[in-house]
Amino acid sequence: MYPLLGYSWELQVPKGVQYVDGVDGARKAVREQVMYGADWIKYYSDRKYHFEGDGVLHSMLNFTDEEAKAIVDETHRLGKKVAAPRNREAMGSRQRCGPGLDTIEHGDGLTDALIDEMARKGVYWVPTITVGAYVAPGAVGIGRRWWIWKRPRFRKR
Q1: Radius of gyration of the chain (CA)
Q2: How do the pLDDT tens digits run along the chain, 157 residues long?
Q3: What's the pTM?
Q4: CA angle 37-40-42, nearest 5°?
Q5: DSSP character for 127?
Q6: Which sign does the torsion angle of CA 83, 121, 74, 86 carry?
Q7: Interatomic CA distance for residues 7 and 86, integer angstroms
């Protein structure tokens, strides 16, 4: 997933995505990425986005609450910032707007209540609207057709 390309096979370079397992593995992964020079840690909090019959965007969480907290705590302990892509479901679940995230990327399907919670906690929102447009159901690619986000679904402009 996201490897760095073009380097000699003899060099061990950081990967764009590092797999972790358990709380200790999560803390170790953060330390390794910081050792390689990372100023920000972005962890993929959820995956498998899909709409269900309720018309709401759903996803599957990648980490337990303890693992997510370990990633954030270790990142902050080392003086770095942490970001996570979140959709409405992940934020409305047990992990909410944290634990302790500095930014939320994408934020597909955010509700006013969740945005208010983010503001109270000082969490910045990086909407990256074109990412949502690019992966929208039926989108044929940026540049050929534009899509805009309209809660709770994508709508052709």
Answers
A1: 17
A2: 456 677 888 887 776 678 888 999 999 999 999 999 999 998 888 777 777 787 777 777 888 888 988 999 999 999 999 998 876 555 555 455 556 889 888 877 777 888 888 888 888 888 887 766 666 655 444 443 433 444 444 444 4
A3: 0.70
A4: 120
A5: -
A6: negative
A7: 32
